[in-house]
Protein 1
Amino acid sequence: MPPDSMLTTPDTTSIGAQTRQAFSLLRRAARPDQHHLGWAVLWLMLAALFEVMGPIMGKALIDEHLLPHHLDWPRMALLLAGLLLSGWIASGLRYLQLVRLSGLAMRSVMRLREMVYTHVLLLPMSFFDRAITGQLVSRVTNDTEAVKNLYIQVLFVILDSTIVLVGTIAAMAWLDVRLMGMVLALLPAVLVIVFLYQRWSAPAVTRARALRSDINGQMAESIGGMSVLQANNAQQRFGARFAATNQAHYTARQAELRANAWLLRPALDLFNVILLAVVIFVFGQRQMTATEVGVLYAFISYLARVIEPLIQITMQFSQLQQAVVASARVATLLDEAEAKEHTAAAIGQAAAADQSSSGPQPAVAIRHLDFAYNPGQPVLHDLSLEIPAGAFIGIVGHTGSGKSTLLSLLLRFYPAPHGSITLHGVALDDIDNERFRAEVGLVPQDPFLLAASARDNIDMGRGLTQAQIETAARAAHAHDFIMALDRGYDTELGEGGSRLAVGQKQLIAIARALAGQPRILLLDEATSHIDSQTEQVVQLALDELRGKVTVIAIAHRLSTIRDADRIIVLNHGRITETGPHEALMQIEGGLYQRLYLLQQLSTS
Ligand SMILES: Nc1ncnc2c1ncn2[C@@H]1O[C@H](COP(=O)(O)OP(=O)(O)OP(=O)(O)O)[C@@H](O)[C@H]1O
C-alpha cells in the first residue's frame, strides 16, 4: 500500500460511490441546518416567480395598452412598476437566500472541520506512521473548504438556476408552446459550447491549481528551513525559484482567462444572437397580430433567463466533481477506525483487579511480548520483564534495537498481539483512558512545546492549579529559569518553544509529565540533545523521584542511567543483559561494557 493511500480515495472507488459518500457526509454536516434548505428552495421558487412575472407584465403593457392605444394610466403605471420591481424583488430574494445558504455552508464546514480534527485525534498511532502530515492538514483545511464550495456554488447556483430555468420554460410554454419547443431544441448547443470550453481550459486550470500548491509548498518549506536557507546564503536561488513558479502560475491563469475570453463568451454571444434571430424569424413567418408583439417581447426577455442559468449549471459540473472527490476524501478519513476505546466499564474491572490483587504488584510486568510493525519483520522477541514500583530502570541498546518500540507499547500506541503487559497488576487494555494518562507520563526525545505560555505548556489543558504547576516545575528544576523569564509562567514561549534553549525545553517537558503526578514516568532519550550541565539537572530531578515514581529511561547517553537500579540491554529486540551498572561492566565483552567504553572514549 503506498504511504498516502490511507488519505486519498482509492481510484477503485467509482464516481457513483464517491458521490454517495460525499452527499451523505454533506447531509450529516448540514443536519442541524436542514430547515434552512427547505426555506431556501421555497424562497428561490418565489424569486423565480417574480423573475418570470416581469416579461408577462411587459407583454400585458404592450398588448393591452400601448398597441391598442388603450391608455388606462393607473393600470399602466401598475404594470410598469410591476415590470421594474419584479426583477429587483427577485434579485433581493435571491441575495437573501445566498446569505442563508452561505451561513449554512460556513456552519457545515465548521462542523466538518471539528468532526475531522477530533476524529484525527482519536486515530491510532499506526495511522500516523503511514499518514503524510501535509496531506492530513489539507484534509482538514482545503478539502473541507472544497465542501463549502459544494454548498455555496454548486448547491446554490444549481438550485437557483434550475428553478429559474424551469419557471422560464413553463412561462414560455404558457405563451407559445411551439416556440418554446424550438428554443428547447436549440438549447443543448449551450451544453456543447460549455463542454468544449471546459475541455480547452482544463489543462490550464489543472496547471494553475498544481502551481498554486507549489507556491504554498515553497513558502512553507522556506519558512520552515529559514536558518538552513540563510546559513547557506540561498536566498537568491530560492527567490528566483519562487519567481519562476509564480510566473508560471500567472501564465496558466492567463491561459484560463483567454479560453474564457476567446471561446466561451463569443460563442455564447453568437448563440444568443442565433436564438434571437430564430425567434424573430418564426414571428416574421406569422401574420403578426397585436398580441404577437407582446409575446415576442416576452420571449426575447426570457431567452437570457434560459441561457444564463444553463451556463451556470454546466459550469458547476467541474466544481461539483472536484468537491465530490474532496468530500469523499474527507469521508474516507472519517471512516478510518479510531483507536480502541478504553471505556468507563473497564475502570470497574481495573479497580476490582487492583483491589483483588494480593500483595504489592510490580509497576510493570511484561510477559512473552512479541511485536512487529509489519508482518514478518519482528522488532521485539519474547520479551519478559518485571519492574518493581518506584524503581529507576535504564534501557540501552544499539539504534534500531527496539527501545522506542517498547515504550510505544507501554504507552498503548500499538496493540501487542502476542504476550501481555500489566501496570500495577492490571492488564494494559483494561485501564480506562483517563486513569491510564494519569498513571503514565512521557518525556519524549523532542519536547514538542506549544506556541503558548510556560504555564499552558505544563498544564496542557488539564486545568491544574498554579500550585500544582509550580510543584511540577520545581521537581523538574524548571521553576528558577521560568521565573527569570520576563513574565514568569505567563511568558509566551514562541512557536515550538523557540524562546528557550533545548535543555530548558526538555525541563518544561519533564515538568509537564510530572504535573500529572504519574506513578510511571517514561523518558525517551530525554537527554540526548542537552548539554552536560542540564543533564546533571535532569539527573538530579530523576534522583529526587527515586522510590516515589517508577522511572523507565531510554538513554543513548549512558551517564543518564549509570545510577539506575537496573539497566536493561536490548539487542535486536531481545534482552541480552540486565543488572546494575557495575554488574554489567563486569561482563567481559558484553554489549553494555562495549557501549560504555566507547562513549568514555569519545568524550575523553
Ligand atoms: N512506525 C514504525 N513502522 C515500522 N517500523 C518501525 C517503526 N518504528 C520503528 N520501526 C522499526 O523498528 C525497529 C526498532 O525501532 P525503534 O525505534 O524501536 O529502535 P530504537 O532502539 O528506539 O532506535 P533509536 O535508538 O535509533 O531510537 C527498527 O528497525 C525500525 O526501523
Protein 2
Amino acid sequence: MKEELIMDTKERLIVALDLAERERVLGLVSQLHDCCGMFKVGLEPFCNYGPAFVKEIQEAGGRVFLDLKFHDIPRTVAQAGRAAARLGVAMFNVHIAGGREMLRAVVEEVEDETGGKRMPLIIGVTVLTSLGAEELFNDLGIERQPLDQVLFWAEIAKECGLSGVVASPREIAAIRERFGEDFLIVTPGIRPAGSSAGDQKRISTPGEAINAGADYIVVGRPILQAVDSREAARRILREMEESRDERK
Ligand SMILES: O=C(O)c1cc(=O)[nH]c(=O)n1[C@@H]1O[C@H](COP(=O)(O)O)[C@@H](O)[C@H]1O
C-alpha cells in the first residue's frame, strides 16, 4: 500500500542532475528513475554534454525538465523554445523578467511546433531562491519584498499563458491562494532537516513545501551528495507522502 502511494507521489519529485561527470549522471538516472517523475538537466550538464545527453536520459526512461532559464529577446527565446519542444522535453523554463512579449512569443512558437499536442510545460522563473530581499534591492534594484515580486511576476506569467512558475517554498501558499489549483508551482530550495543550505536563501523541507501546495519539488545536492542517493530520494518521498496525507 505504502509502495503504491510512493509511486504516485514520485511524479512530483524532480531530481536536479547538477553534475559534470557523465557516467555518474547516467548511473544516477538508472538508480533513481523509479523514484522521481523527472530529471532536471540544467546549465552544467547541458553545457558539458549538450542536447544528445537529453536524448540519452530519455532513452534510459527519464522525463526531462530542461532548465536553461531562457532570457533574451522574444525571437531568440521563441526559437530556443521550439528547439526544446523538438527535443521532446516534458518541461522547460524561461525568466519572467524577459517581459510579456518574450513570454507570449515562446508560448506561441511552442504551440506552433507541437500543434498544441504534447506541449512541454513552460514554467516562468520568478525570484531565484538564492536571492533574499537584500540582494533583490542591492543587486537588482528591485524595491519590492521577494514575495511581492514573485506575485507580480506570477501574474504576468499567467496572463501570458505559461503553465506555472518556479518559486521558493516561502511563496507557495500565496501563489496558490491567488492563482488557484491549475497554475503549477515548481519549488527548488528544498532542504530536508539537517541538510546544509549552501547558496540557497529561501528554503524549506520537502514536507513543508508539499503542505504549502507545491506541485513539484526540485532537489539537487541533498540527493546527489548523499552517501546513498536512492535512499535519500526515498526518504524525501516518504516525507512528501506524509505531508500529502496531512493536506487532504
Ligand atoms: O529553475 C530552477 O530549477 C531553480 C530556480 C531557483 O530559483 N532556484 C534553484 O535552485 N533552481 C534550481 O534548482 C536546483 C536546486 O539544487 P539544490 O540547491 O542542489 O537542491 C538547482 O539546479 C538550481 O539551478
